[in-house]
Structures are given as structure tokens and as C-alpha cells.
């Protein structure tokens, strides 16, 4: 059983629903090696669950994650850091590997490794009092997993500014940069993220997973799109969707997620 992460899965039989992954290492949800591994294990469970249509990742009402557990990092030597780097890097990128749509519901602070984790989500919803940033440079370090994804998201110039300076970003700037997708009142963060996730409970799960795989393929996206597109012709949802589209127009299909 995980110590610092909880995972709520859809209840009942048959119906697809939204899973909720919560990080719970108070007071600031600092991400040490154990926590990021627990998050990655929970994400893998979501990926393998046939009735999860989407995933919300959340801390609590006060904080998403204030970042790296610097005290743990300070105790490492170079050999120990090298031995764990690949594992931690992969774990911080785990949300991008989940085939279902994912949304990070961000309250309070989302810093360092917390922001790197959130960058792997498909969408980021923040409260209008949130502070974001990658302050690892102030500890003589760099982000382990977030530099490339940040650069692709907001462009190399703004990404370099955030990484090199380690400065905090306020909500208005974060939205303008494209670092986040939605800014709401602090008390509405989880509800807004859940509303977005619930849009996919009746959606074509296989097609959504295929689209996400193409986005994640980066420069190989065209090749990946051909394979994913052709593969969808073997799914029940494609049959339902195309037949319904011809008969009744778009938006009329009742998908089954297969």
C-alpha cells in the first residue's frame, strides 16, 4: 500500500468514470523518491484499468506540491544520483504515459518536481492564487524531467528564462505563457478539473488514447498517426462512431470504450 498517494477508481460495474490520484505528504507535499514512485505506480494502475475514462491529479486545498525534497537530495553523492536519475525521471513523466486524458488540479504551490509532474498532464487547472516555478537552480541543480516538455509547451526562450532564473510565475503570466490552461477561484480548482475530466466518460477511449500517443510521439508523430489511425478500424468504437455519424451526424454515437 502507498504511504503518500491515494487512488480513487470508478465504483460499480460497467460504467466508465474518473479516477482521482491524490498526493498526501503534508504539509507541503514535497516529492521525494518514494512519493514519485508511488505516483508512478498509481498512474500505471490507472493506465491498466478498463473503466477509467480520465484522471484528475490533485494535492489538497492548500498545495499541489511545493517541489523537490531538497533535504533528501542534499544527502546524495554523485554515484547515488546517477543510479536513481533514470528511475526518478521516468516517474516524474508518468502522466504522459497514461493513455487516458489527465488533468492536474493545482492549488497553492506547484514548484520544482511538482511542476515537472504536472507538465506531463494533458491539462493544468490552477487557482488564481497559485505560484508556479522551477527553482532547482537555487539549489545548484536543474529540473530532471521537465526541461524538454516545458520548452515544447511554452517555447525555448520563456522556458530558459524560468529554468535559468528559478523565478516564480503568477497565474496571469502562467496563462499567457500557455503554462496552464485554466485559472479559477481557489475553491473551484478540483471541481473545474473534474468537470473537464468527466467530458470523457462517454467518449471513444481507444481513439482518445490514439490521439494522445500521436501527441507524445513528437517528431515521429506522422508515422505514429498512420499506425494509430489504421488500428482504430479494428475497434468497436470506430464501427459505432462511423455508423452513427453517417446515420445521425456528429455527437450522436454511444461509445463503449473498446
TrEMBL record:
GO molecular function, one term: lyase activity
One of the protein's GO biological processes: fatty acid beta-oxidation
Keyword ATP-binding: no
Domain of life: Bacteria
Entry annotated with the keyword Disulfide bond: no
Keywords: Lipid metabolism, Lyase
TM helices/strands, residue ranges: none
Family: Belongs to the enoyl-CoA hydratase/isomerase family.
Protein name as annotated: Enoyl-CoA hydratase
Native species: Nocardia amikacinitolerans
Amino acid at each position: 500500500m502507498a504511504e503518500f498517494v491515494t487512488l480513487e477508481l470508478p465504483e460499480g460495474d460497467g460504467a466508465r468514470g474518473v479516477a482521482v490520484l491524490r498526493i498526501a505528504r503534508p504539509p507541503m507535499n514535497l516529492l521525494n523518491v518514494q512519493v514519485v514512485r508511488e505516483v508512478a505506480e498509481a498512474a500505471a494502475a490507472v493506465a491498466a484499468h478498463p473503466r477509467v475514462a480520465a484522471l484528475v491529479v490533485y494535492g489538497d486545498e492548500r498545495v499541489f506540491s511545493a517541489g523537490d525534497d531538497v533535504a533528501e537530495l542534499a544527502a546524495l553523492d554523485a554515484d547515488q544520483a546517477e543510479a536513481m536519475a533514470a528511475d526518478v525521471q521516468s516517474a516524474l513523466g508518468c502522466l504522459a504515459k497514461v493513455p487516458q486524458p489527465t488533468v492536474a488540479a493545482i492549488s497553492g504551490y506547484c514548484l520544482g518536481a511538482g511542476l515537472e509532474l504536472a507538465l506531463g498532464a494533458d491539462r493544468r487547472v490552477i487557482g488564481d492564487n497559485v505560484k508556479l516555478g522551477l527553482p532547482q537552480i537555487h539549489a545548484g541543480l536543474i529540473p530532471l524531467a521537465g526541461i524538454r516538455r516545458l520548452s515544447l509547451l511554452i517555447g525555448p526562450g520563456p522556458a530558459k528564462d524560468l529554468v535559468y532564473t528559478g523565478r516564480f510565475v503568477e497565474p496571469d503570466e502562467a496563462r499567457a505563457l500557455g503554462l496552464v490552461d485554466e485559472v479559477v477561484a481557489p475553491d473551484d480548482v478540483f471541481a473545474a478539473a473534474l468537470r473537464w475530466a468527466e467530458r470523457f466518460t462517454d467518449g471513444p477511449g481507444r481513439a482518445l488514447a490514439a490521439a494522445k500517443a500521436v501527441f507524445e510521439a513528437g517528431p515521429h508523430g506522422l508515422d505514429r498517426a498512420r499506425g494509430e489511425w489504421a488500428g482504430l478500424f479494428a475497434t468497436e468504437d470506430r464501427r459505432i462512431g462511423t455508423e452513427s455519424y453517417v446515420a445521425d451526424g456528429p455527437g450522436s454515437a454511444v461509445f463503449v470504450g473498446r
